[in-house]
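Residues determine shape. Take a concrete instance:
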Amino acid sequence: MVAPRDNWVVDGLGATHEFDRLHAVEHRHHHDGGGGELHARGRTIRDVADVLCAAPLDPRIVAAIRACHALGCDLRILSDANRFFIDAVLDHHGLRGYFSEVTTSLSRVDADGRLRIAPYHDFHAGTHGCCLGTCPRNMCKGQALDRIRASTAAATGGKKQRLIYLGDGRGDYCPSLRLEREDLMMPRKGFPVWNLI
């Protein structure tokens, strides 16, 4: 499943110009607290959720998720978005219970109604150490995939599990290089990871 990027929300709330200015002037990333800027512009957490729910999702994707789950596939989400965004989309499409794990940046709504996002890898404390240059600074999906694979192996007593990885962004290139011989990578044609591969 493709989670909507921060840009979808920023664009949908009419704040693109302001976020571009902040990014250029202050070298900020949307994970640096974009919820504060949206809140200051009078946008509520409900506005953010409404934009997320308006993100186009092909009905065939929903059908594929349900079919894979019915076949017993262990579905997981690995995303450099954030938990609020992902949960909003999953809830909107009735899919939250189909995924055994969501690995992403943490998020919470504070007492003032602002969305606060904490990166998966705390880039304020230092880099996550990935040297490929394709991972966003808030998450090395390759390192996250290694953790998922290790926890899966521990839960199954070391039994090998075949991984089928679907991705579209530059950040999906790193984990694609960590897949094993029996695994599959399904890049989205015409998107950054397709071009990198």
In short: DSSP finds nine helices and five strands in the chain. Residues 26-33 have pLDDT under 50 and may be disordered. Residues 141-155 form the longest helix (15 residues).
